[in-house]
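Supplementary material to the annual report.
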Amino acid sequence: MTVLEELPDITESPDAKPSGNLPTSKDLYYRWERQQWSVAALDLTKDQETWGTLRAFYRTELLNALTELEVGEVTVVETLSSLVDKAPTDDDRIYLSTQLADEGRHVRFFQTYLREAAGISGEGLADSADYTNHFAPELRRVTGAVWAKGDRDSWYEALVYYHLVTEGVLAATALRTTRQLAKRLPLPALVEGLTNVTRDESRHVAFGMIAARDGVAAGYAEPVRRAYLHGLELGARVLVGPLRKQAVPAVKTALVFRAAQLRGGFEIARDRAVRQLAHIGLPDAVADAAEVWDTALERALDAYEEHWNTPHPVRAAGSLKESA
Amino acid sequence: MSSEEILTGVRRIIGEMCPLGARDVAPADRIMEDLGYDSMAVVELALVLEAEFALEPIDEEQAIDLVTVEDVAELVGRMVSARA
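Predicted assembly:
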């Protein structure tokens, strides 16, 4: 069994069952001590060779994914401090301090990898990223509100955008699909780095779920629910990426495959978005979350078509099925 | 461009891009079963063929099963003819 196969899906971890057996923030701190890794220790030699031989399709796929991940990591480094400072308990604050170190390491990993393995400068990457345009402004607003207001409602809202949507839905999906791609090419240093990042994210999402669950139990269900639904609306847009031009194969068999690949990513994210609600004590919000997600996804596909004046591959393949 | 030239070009590209390693391929070789292409590799192959032969979608094509190298060459030939 490979390392990747041993890695649990974040929300399928035995520690994360909705039975109430989630780890505590103190447990997560000690897990962090045991799960250290080093960007400098990654050997990029084989990856550099592979990048030199990649054709346009895989190169674009990887660069799009790594750009979104890098931009997301930079944003979360810049916005976590208010959650650390205003954390409900000392154990939460100590755990969140470890997470700040993780996020810094993730930025260093993605920037080093893009520069030294893919030969890409990080400059200008953020401008075209969907996360920058659709989600980061809201994350900055809600984490800024934690400083400005200092109340629990604001803290739980920011936690939801940060830990449950950015990390639990968007990053977890991107890490899973990008790791699969890296594994097949093969890009061993990227696989190793993404595996390490995924392990870290697993702790972050676990913290998000225990904190949100505690918040719901303590009377903050409404701000958590409201933030979750709005976060999903923005998250679906990031995942579709209306600003990111997709290859639309002229060969229809290939178009059907392409659409299935993209739809697979959407389904992973939707599944996570719905399942997290059971873990945080809001199972009654599942139907609303599914509806918000599906509607936002369709709107994002509309926005793509409007922006590029051509249907997204998922839509193009859908109309192909309808006309067949 | 003759159908023979198209078949030769398609065989060369499919052989060069073969996920099992570059090799000579025969018209009857099955893309997925014999040559190891999966759905991602088929998408990449289609995009390379489109660039090489300047292909555009054709109305009469349905999402058919492209099983063999010859099937792909035949489709490319039809798309090239439709463009002319």
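The radius of gyration of chain B is 12 Å.
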